[in-house]
Amino acid sequence: MQNVIEFFRTLPKKKCKECGNDIIEKADCYGNLCDECDHPAR
Q1: Which terminal CB of the chain, N or C, has fewer other CB atoms within 10 Å?
Q2: Out of the domains of life, which is the source (predicted)?
Q3: Contact assessment for residue 32 and residue 17, using Cβ atoms and an 8 Å cutoff
Q4: What sign does the CA torsion over 32, 34, 19, 42 have?
Q5: Does the model's pTM come out above 0.85?
Q6: For the chain (length 42 residues), average pLDDT per consecutive 10?
Q7: Distances (CA, A) of 39 to 6, 33, 42
């Protein structure tokens, strides 16, 4: 059985649905847009 910590550490990075860049996740990150695409001035 795989160690739980190892499981979460090896998950692939989330990708932005708009541009495809990696998302820098925050503690409560459920979104699927990166900071650039989710910027209100965009």
Answers
A1: N
A2: Bacteria
A3: yes
A4: positive
A5: no
A6: 85 92 81 88 80
A7: 33, 9, 6
